[in-house]
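Q: How would the structure tokens look for this protein?
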Amino acid sequence: MAPPDFSKSTVETLGKRASYVCSNPDCRRITVGATRDQKASIIGEAAHIYGARPKASRYSDQMSDLERAQETNGIWLCRSCHKLIDDDVKRYPPELLFKWREVHDEFTASQLENAGSWARLEVQREFFDNHPNLTPAARRILADKPDFWECLLTLELLRSSTSVPKQKMTDLLSGAYVPQFKVIAAGHEPTFFQRKFFELKKLIASAKQIFTVQLFTSWGEDGHSGDEITIIHIGSLIQKLSDAFATWEEEIHSVYFEREVFLETNEVLKGCGNHNFKQIEMVQDLVAEVIQTVNTPEEGRSLDFKHTMVFDFPSGFDDRFEKALNFAKQELLFDEI
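A: Here is the predicted structure in token form.
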């Protein structure tokens, strides 16, 4: 595993990008100067926005150590402000620190009076205005564009787009969330099951298209940069797909059948949406592995990645569903006799 600490070059990059001025807009103390023996004295520090280790301020267990060590997760501060933000996490959350960095970018550009820097920031601002749903971390990745930014952006979009449906799935399957029930009238069971099968097959087809064709091609060919608009678009598709799997699962958990013999048939369907949603979560692990591997190269190690994603009904589903359906039919036939 890569260490979560900033490398020497990352610390230097953060300091230079901040012009060695504290990024706290209420401070802006100069953090570098000459000593009596004409050597440079630096009183600034590269602070982690999301903490480097468990129990550190603003630590997130959703991130990898390599992400924690990226310049996109850092901010240049004087020592006093570094201590200030770590001592009061509620007052200085990650979102605020990311905003400080954006504000400081504008401040340093104004101090340099560089027309080119101002033009770049204006283009960046317009881009973010056109994509208002980007998380602060995603905005920072796009602003800095470090090595392999395409993978970092994809991972952040995957994480943010699946967080809400993941919580919904967890609450639903644990019983913590009980949706409003609706009744399936006698004789309407076949239509209900046919519709749910059709919906899930469509979602599975969409997932296969996104994850086997579109996602990884958006990173660009070897030696070429990826396309940020395409990556963001795919992120929005993944969010819609994740929401749809959660909604599908929610409806399966929210129906009651007048003819109770079909309850067992419906039980077999429960979890099928979550089964496919779990495949999306596994992609996060794959992307994190890619980032980790390409950033810690070893001589002779292949950079080819193989990962099997199975978007489909769970193993053994057909047999279990047919058995439950036959049971319902036999019970109905017995009642008629």
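The chain has a mean pLDDT of 90.

Residues 189-217 form the longest helix (29 residues).

Upvote if useful.
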